[in-house]
Amino acid sequence: MFYRLSGTYHTTYESDRKLWKIPADRWQVIAVLVLAVAAPFLVSPLYLGSYVLPWVIWSAAALSLTLLMGMAGQLHFGFAAVMAIGAYSSIHLVRFGVPFEIALILSGLIAAGIGTVFGAAALRVKGLYLVMATLAMQYLVDWVVVNVPAISGGAHATLRTPAVSFLFVDVSSLASRYWLALGWAVLLTLFFLNVKRTSFGRALVAIRDKDFAAAVIGVDPFRTKMMAFFTSSFMGGVTGAILAYCYYRAVTPEQFGFDVSIQLVAMVLVGGLGSVIGSYLGAGFVLLAPIFLTNFIAGMAGAGWIPVSQNFLSHLPLIIYGAMIIGFLLFEPLGLAKIYDNIRKYFLVWPFRHAKS
Amino acid sequence: MNRIRKTALSAVLAAGASFGLAAPMQAEEIKFGLLQDFTAVYTFVTGEYNQGQRDYLTLINEEGGVEGHTFTAIVRDTGNQPQRGIEAYNRAKEEGAILFDFLSTPVSAAILDQANADQRVVITPAHGRGDASDGTVFPYIFPAMATYWAQAANLIDHIKQHDGGLDGKKIAIVHIDSPFGREPLPILDELAGQEGFEYRAFPYASPGNEQSAAWSEVRRYRPDHVLIWGAGGGQAVSVRTAIQNGIAPEQIYSVIWLAETDAANVGPQMTGVKRFEASASGTDHPIIQRIQEKVIEPGKGAGDAANVGTSYYNLGVATMAISVEAARLALEDGGPLTGETLKAGFERVADYDAEGLMPAVTFSEQDHQGGGAGRVSQWDGSAWVPVSDWHAAFPEIVRAEIEESAAHYGSGN
Amino acid sequence: MAYFLELLINGALTGLMYSLAALGFVLIYKSAGVPNLAQGAVVMTAAYVVWIMVSSGVPLWIAIPAGMAVMFAFGLVVERLLLRRMVGQPVIMVVMLTLGLEILLRGLVPGLLGSTPRSLDLGIGFAPVILGDVFINRTYLVGGTIALLLVGASLLFFRTRIGTKLRAVSDDHVSSWAVGISVERAIGISWGLAGVTAVVAGVLWGSAQGVDWTLSMLLFPAVAVVILGGIDSIPGVLVGGILVGVLGSVIPGYLDSYVGGGTRDVVTSLIILLTIMVRPYGIFGREDIERI
């Protein structure tokens, strides 16, 4: 219907190597991009500021994490700490007088440096032990941030972001902050789509599938794992800085706590490991589902439909949210990306459903 | 089958959308956003506190509102997460809320600047930044009750009155290791110099379910008095471990977060422990009596009737009493009630004590704390009995701390 | 010196109480190979279950065994409904599933039963046990003793017939099947037993700090205990618990008031990190040999 295609047929290598092989996919991506760029004119500030903007930023964070978890197969339960390093260093750098553009890159490098040190645990262990090691990293970074007033910003542990401009454009209005965040998310998306086609990307996948086997065919596991941690932490660090400057604008340690790390992992898993569209869908789901549930349940309660105590009412979104994570893992372990893929494949050959796609 | 499913789905979506957008606004309604943390860090207080707030608003509505205007509470859980708080704030703002209470330090911190820019009043009673008491720097933020600094000063003052001077005394402060726990330290520094006592801080790791190491050290410090500065389950552990280390309950002084639930948790041994309070507890007050009569008995209460009169319930009532009084004064001025006029209303509140439920507060354009008065009360085994009168202790030192910290904020922090 | 001894003894006892929470984790990991990150929430659930019975008038000595029965059933149900479907999935999926379970329980249990801290009085009393200038916390003394007994009992349990089956299952699922051991049943039993140990942990910690959702935060020290002691070792729980408790008491005892911060979490984190760097399988854990 939309695709006007029954199966994919490529006659040249060039067309087979395209990012979006089917014209309809290309048009969809362009349409979404146009909508995203035009969002400040299309939606009210309420929706832009409290839904679209955080969605875009958390999608970027999920993309950074899925590079590590989905592509390289290295589990990370302390990614919020990496983002915290990026956020705090960018603010201190700008206050120190470094231009914002350079501060962003430097904060990414600082986060990457520290993130790689902790990633060194990955050289020895994997799986569950790596989860534990990164968890410990989360607690250590949290502790340092809370206990060093020079980092956290004094007695109240609140650090406001200074006013900045990005490439001579003042980043203070909601729309400009949104566009900066969107630009970063688009950049990450393009990087992610392309890295799958480079030797580095293929080395990551080889390491994920079996690191010993990868070593046998000449991929250096040490170097590749370090590179994976470095790249992912760099992206996470810059995303943390973007989160601070474009969304919160006042940074407190709680914004990068252990819960946030778990949320990021949930985003990556619910979306689908290693998938670009999954990162966007997963971030949207994990970020917005509790919000929608809270509003929906409060509305139902307001209409007198659920006669239960306020205490239970407030816990209800948490319950449903937990149940939904469990449900996804049980019934669709490949995540929202797989659901999207099923729908796409259905329409790809529609109405000839028995044709192969 | 598929069509039924689709219809059902669209019905649910439509219902969700219409609920989300809320009913059309009535001209006479004044909306308060009580967007609090019911599920994460503040669970120990939010339930009772929020119940008190809503019951008081119901009482005002039952009594005919303020000049015909009724009050509506928009209640949402934020789970202590700033991004959910920002969403809830923006949405409630859209629905027309003019006053907010987040009861969560991280959420308040994330919204401070936005609320000042949007001209919406945020009350931060017993949480949030103490320096927001400086109305010249934070025009729309009202701590509205004694800040942690004022609380520490009040407790020290009580010890001073009780012992007849502080010269040479040793005071230990055992606090949770967080910005909140460290908040009283600058005031203690200041007071130690002025009053000639010695103090030492003993932090324990959050959430404080195990504090034996800290208290072993406290015992060896041999303090004359101990301040405990924590919240939630950690408070009961503090009292318990203190008593186990041979510290008499009478020597223990707590921040505002020590209530009936903690007493039940510790047991009869807690008799004698003192705490700061910013509002009276118990049902023996005109407002609470009227709530019993007009809200609870007709079955319009917001929760378990057994909670009426607990410390945190009354604290919630007191916060709303101040807010409604401010709204009344703002309406007296005429004109529509907006964030701007409500702020002006707050700053006109003078000598208001909610019929004796709390110390008289007076706000001004500079002072958004309302004087910072409070008192000390002591647990007698079944209730909190006041052992001092409502008063503000060392107000000039507290004020200096507020101004210094606010100036720091004004310069970019 | 007395100060050091006091920190040492109280630390060791607290550590033993941590190992109560860790024991369930090990039981499940040993048989099923599943890291149950919801164990903290299971402890919280168990404490609530006992509390609701006690507060409705059931005497403690009935409430605790009844709570154990409930939690045993709870463990069986969780295993049957959730974990059995995850067999063969990558570890990250299982980890996330248990985290999802943690979120669910943390919403459901306080949502239904109330979220303000509840008291659970065991009648242990307040007066410390005093040896010279050393004060020993009575609650921790009782808790530590019970922990010792329980770990001892689990060691003995693994020598019984059913325990032998569990050991076989923990060695190799396929071979166990081959010799006629029901792997599913063995794993179910280990989940049930984890529920039972959670009751003990929940009641003791609940009496020490009150029953509320923060009980689920016992997970973090429990994880440190398990990593240090060896993730599939019962004696490791004991030794790991004592070490984590002692280090987490002695080091903060000397450092905290100078640093001006609670260093216990730092110590715990460093224990985890160092163990993983130096000896990932812990003190008593079995080293996995990976084949391509």
What does this structure look like?
The complex is a heterotrimer of chains A (357), B (413) and C (292). Chain A has 357 residues and is an all-alpha fold. Chain A is 73% helix and 2% strand. Chain A starts with 12 loop residues before the first helix and ends in a 9-residue tail after the last helix. With 413 residues, chain B is an alpha/beta fold. Chain B is globular and about 60 Å long. The termini of chain B are far apart. Chain B has 2 domains: 2-146 and 281-372, Rossmann fold (3-Layer(aba) Sandwich), CATH 3.40.50; 148-277 and 376-393, 3-Layer(aba) Sandwich (Rossmann fold). Helices cover 45% and strands 15% of the residues of chain B. In chain B, helix 2 (43-62) crosses helix 11 (286-296), helix 2 (43-62) crosses helix 12 (311-332) and helix 5 (148-163) packs parallel to helix 7. Chain C has one domain (2-278): Orthogonal Bundle (ABC transporter involved in vitamin B12 uptake, BtuC). Chain C has a two-stranded antiparallel ribbon with strand order 1-2. The model of chain C has no long low-confidence stretch (mean pLDDT 90). Chains in contact: A-B, A-C, B-C. At the A-B interface, helix 3, strand 1, helix 14 and helix 15 of A face helix 1, helix 2, strand 2, helix 3 and helix 4 of B.
With helices defined by DSSP (H or I, 4 residues minimum), what is the helix count of chain C? 11
Uncertain runs of chain A: none
Report the C-alpha radius of gyration of chain A, rounded.
Answer: 21 Å
Distance between the termini of chain C: 53 Å
Q: How is the quaternary structure best described?
A: heterotrimer
- Average the pLDDT over all residues of chain C and give the rounded result: 90
Greatest contact between two chains: A-B, 47 and 49 residues
State the helical fraction of chain A. Answer: over 70%
Structural class assignment of chain A: mainly alpha
What CATH first level of chain C would be assigned?
Answer: Mainly Alpha
Give the name of the CATH architecture of chain C.
Orthogonal Bundle
Counting helices, strands and paired strands, the structural category of chain C is: mainly alpha
- What gap, in angstroms, lies between the N and C termini of chain A? 14 Å
Q: Tally the helices of chain A: what do you get?
A: 16
β-strand amount of chain C: under 5%
